[in-house]
Amino acid sequence: MINIDNEMAKAEVLIEALPYIQKFNRKIIVVKYGGSAMTNESLKQKVIEDVVLLKLVGFKPVIVHGGGKEISRWVEKVGMEPNFVNGLRVTDAPTMEIAEMVLNRVNKELVSIIQKLGVKAVGISGKDGGLLTCTKKLSGGQDIGFVGDISAVDPKVIYNLLENDFLPVICPIGIDKDYNTYNINADDAACAIAKAIKAEKLAFLTDTPGVLRDKDDENTLIAELDLAEADRLMNNGIIGGGMLPKLNNCVDAIKSGVSRVHIMDGRIPHCLLLEIFTNKGIGTAILNEGAERFYDENADNNQ
């Protein structure tokens, strides 16, 4: 026997999603995929299902992925020791060779999962089509090897893939003007690509709930945050640790034309759908001052 309440609840979810599907139809969304959602097989499947659904309802998703934990695993597997300076991986020539191998392996695995779900995907790195050009990145003035700062983005290869109905999957490897290969921070790559292709949305999958007013209290999650509020939180020292460079990247993306940036907990199954297609969402949306707000935090507090 059909449980009409359950079926009505499903219908309500679809109706709540309708205005977002209408608003962002044919718009580009860049998904930075990393953290636990990459290492947990069940979560990996659900993230890719979310991205495929976005594609099938009319979005134009682009995935930019990392692979730091997998790189460290393989570095140790060949008898080397991972080395970090100020949170950045020291990448000598042998480590760079491993990093490129691992990231391309991860890239093609994601392409296979997407295509198994019925969507055409193409995996590329920042070297393809001259997508990502970079310079050597220093850490506190110290040379840490083949770690790159993005100096230019040529998005033609991405536009060509989107126009031909492919879902681009990009790993953060770039080249310098002398065609040396560099490893690039995936957050930086996603932000630079989103700016270059004027993405409507940029979504970061992380191992945190989002931006918190109190880093030790998940109940202080901020659902929506404009640039002035973000600057205030950063300048007052409320935001720190790994969230600070991520929020700086978000603010930079908004100032460069990306409409909305989302920070969400990739450990929650189907987090992308919950954040993008529901009024409240589950993470933090950063938006430009004066932009339309989809969620009234005060109204929720007054209920």
Instruction: Please tell me how large the radius of gyration is.
Output: 19 Å
Q: Low-confidence runs (pLDDT<50, min 5 residues)?
A: 298-303
Helical content band: 40-55%
- How would you characterize the largest beta sheet? 8 strands, mixed
Oligomeric status: single chain
Output the strand order for the largest sheet: 5-8-2-1-11-13-14-12
Task: Label the overall shape.
Answer: globular
* Strand residue percentage: 15-25%
The total of helices stands at 11
**Mean of pLDDT:** 87
Give a count of the beta strands, DSSP E runs of length 2 or more.
Answer: 14
H and E string: HEHHEHEEHEEEHEEEHEEHHEHEH
Protein structure class: alpha/beta
Sequence-ordered SSE layout with sheet pairings:
Elements: H1 4-24, E1 28-33, H2 36-39, H3 41-56, E2 60-65, H4 68-77, E3 84-85, E4 88-89, H5 93-116, E5 121-125, E6 132-139, E7 142-153, H6 156-163, E8 167-171, E9 173-175, E10 181-184, H7 186-196, E11 201-206, E12 224-226, H8 227-235, H9 243-255, E13 260-265, H10 271-277, E14 284-287, H11 297-301
Parallel strand pairs: 1-2, 1-11, 2-8, 5-8, 7-10, 11-13, 12-14
Antiparallel strand pairs: 3-4, 6-7, 9-10, 13-14
Helix pairs in contact: 4-5, 7-9, 8-9
